[in-house]
TrEMBL record:
Probable oxidoreductase that may play a role as regulator of mitochondrial function. Pfam families: Amino_oxidase (PF01593). It is found in: Mitochondrion matrix. The gene is Pyroxd2. Belongs to the carotenoid/retinoid oxidoreductase family. GO terms for molecular function: oxidoreductase activity. It comes from the Eukaryota. Residues 33-163 form the Amine oxidase domain. This is Pyridine nucleotide-disulfide oxidoreductase domain-containing protein 2. Interacts with COX5B; this interaction may contribute to localize PYROXD2 to the inner face of the inner mitochondrial membrane. GO terms for cellular component: mitochondrial matrix. Keywords: FAD, Flavoprotein.
Amino acid sequence: LLSQILNQWFESEPLKATLATDAVIGAMASPHTPGSGYVLLHHVMGELEGQRGAWGYVAGGMGALSQAIARAAAAQGAHIFAEKAVSHVMLGTDGRAQGVVLQDGTEVKSKLVLSNASPQITFLELIPQEQLPKDFVQRIQQVDTRSPVTKINVAVDRLPNFLAAPNACDGQPLPHHQCSIHLNCEDTNLLHQAFTEATHGHFSSRPMIELCIPSALDPGLAPQGCHVVSLFTQYTPYLLVDGQPWDEQTRNAYADTVFDCIEAYAPGFKASVIARDILTPPDIERIFGLPGGNIFHIGMSLDQLYFARPAPSYSDYRSPIPGLYLCGSGAHPGGGVMGAAGRNAARVALKDFRHL
């Protein structure tokens, strides 16, 4: 249990709770859930520019990272088809992947196909089920994709002013504005209570909030004096109690709860809001194709990691379909902006390609 690990190393409850957020981030779990300690390890084991455990903002926003990858691929001769949905993977008479068919009927032929879509979309929607082993299909159907995350993007007309660290007179960002700010994390039991509410089909009355202000480091993201605020919040269940829908009224009720919490730490925040975009788990699933709204494609529980990701005997990026590889977050080692799954899958695919 993460709570046991933290208790061994630390005495300060706010410090333990703040560290615990990275153990439950994106996971339908509490700090008292068995295996939660690994999720913390997963988030701190990496490095950024030689600094272990560090995270960073992408200049120009997260989309700039995708554009950088696209430019690198194009420089090597890749052809990129944007806004072109894939209908299905083409299979030869021998069952080998031969390319993909787009929804407009265009055939893109290839000796290898790498999918960074989720395992569910890759194997349950893009491949005829009769071409896959029944036990494999059953495993993919049963993977746990529960996600507690609702993402709220906010435009504000001034920098949030926190009671604990008031803004400077000139209104310029201070060091804490340039970091991740964790709210409602004074006690690990607060996180557990928020989780428990979600397991009963209710959104948390005091949600865990990770607040970032990327424009504090990258002013080009907002007009002068204004800022963009990114709120990574949980816990919100995919299915609400009694079949209640995530309609506009419910979305706004949850967002109001989040904003009320922020207001307690930074009075005036609600009055500074110009616009907000609320993405609940069903919204994230619908817009980004992430089953259950899970940013990791599959939950990061111990039974869905390492040799079991996405299924036993298929953790080496290969699939039951020769020539088809999984290279997204649903493959080992899981989610996170690191590219490890893609790099590993590419190496396996190239090795196989040389033997064709």
